[in-house]
Amino acid sequence: MNKRLLLITPFFHPNVGGVETRLNELVKTLGKFGHSVDVLTYQPLTSGNKGKIHESRPGVSIWRMPWPGGDLFHKLLKWPLLEVLYITPGLMLLSIFYMAIRGRSIDAIHTPGLNSAIIGRCLKAIFGKRWVVSTHTIYGFRPTGAFSTVSRWMLKRADHIVALSEPSREELVAIGLPSGIVSTEYTWVDQERFAPMDKKKCRESLNLPQDTFICLFVGRLLPGKGAVVITEAAAKLPQMQFIIAGLGPQEGLISAAANSLPNIRFAGHVDQKRLPFFYNAADIFILPSLYREGLGRVVLESLSCGIPVLMSDRAAIADLIAEAAFIVTPDAAKLSLALSEIAGHPEKLAEKRKQARPVAERLFSEGNIHGLFRAYGWER
Q1: 60-65 and 54-57 as β-strands: parallel, antiparallel, unpaired?
Q2: pLDDT, tens only, 188-220
Q3: Rounded to 5, what percent of the chain is helix, strand, coil?
């Protein structure tokens, strides 16, 4: 039976980022299973892209509310209250109005992230619909802190909370949320698009050398993502080629490094349709996160293409995918040493490569959506 989901999120396509890609994949997969989704969001807040205020296609209706952008979201991260006051009010009013008009047709409400969860709690109180929250980061709650207290009060009314990784689930339970309403449900990627391809042809299409060890980074160019650490490691490894793809506040630093070092190529934003060529052209993907990153969707994409990962020991899923990954402390010296070791032992890299696609198929396939269906109350 067709169900209808209301998805309320400040960030959605054509805004660029891992969360946006994850939600876009959710909407697409809901359609594959015969369900419909209404999306309430803002015009892109952290990129210069613009979408239609109302976009409609079979099974999907998207409303994008105009709102001040200019990457204020990241600029206000140091002041949580100001960020809430910036992110929440407009979408709150739009959501209440939308539910008042069309609420009878909605079977469940999904709010990704804590800012959206504020809206979800209000809608739950007013309209009584099933409400599901999903997390997209490790929050670093302190059991007795004010942030933990407010978050617990807000989330305890949710019908279900979907954590993006096991450490995320554990920290939510640790602040006092009932374990019965919190589950770990891994996201997924399109494994028909992100699949192994011929390396030689991919390198030819991207004008890359055939006989060079190539390292790839894809992600938001934020300080915590560690892209600058890669440029520092690249300076120590002139025999290797480094490709950095993404947008964000550190674009200037990455571009300057690419201009001064011939072994760095700054690719800027790469469309999802072209990304598989970049993954498949690489020998290894690097995720040098400087913070406790919850998941890292790019890791899932890389593994699905059969490319192993060199990742930070601070990443929440490092142990989960250890069969297909090398783990390193994210500083330039240790990163460069690890890359030299990997390149010097191709048999170890080949073993990790052999495991990459099977690990992705086992953990991050489209079938993971059934965990969300159970959270929505659509499956038992």
Answers
A1: antiparallel
A2: 999 999 999 999 999 999 999 999 999 999 998
A3: 45, 15, 40
Please give the Cα distance from 3 to 35 (Å, whole number).
5
Query: Who contacts 320 (Cβ-Cβ below 8 Å, separation ≥6)?
Result: 165, 166, 363
Average pLDDT in the chain: 93
CATH class, domain 4-188+365-376, is alpha beta
- Best CATH choice for the domain 199-363 from the list 3.40.50.2000, 3.20.20.70, 3.40.190.150, 1.10.10.10: 3.40.50.2000
How do the domains of the chain map onto residue ranges?
A: 4-188+365-376, 199-363
Query: What is the number of other CB atoms lying within 10 angstroms of the CB of residue 344?
Result: 10
Matching CATH topology for 4-188+365-376 and 199-363? yes
Mean of the pLDDT values across residues 260-283? 96
Burial (CB count <10 Å: 0-12, 13-18, 19+), residue 367: exposed
The token pair at 273 is 């349709």
Residue holding tokens 């205020």?
Answer: 53
pLDDT digits (tens, 9 = 90+) for 323-367: 999 999 999 999 999 999 999 999 999 999 999 999 999 999 999
pTM above 0.85, yes or no: yes
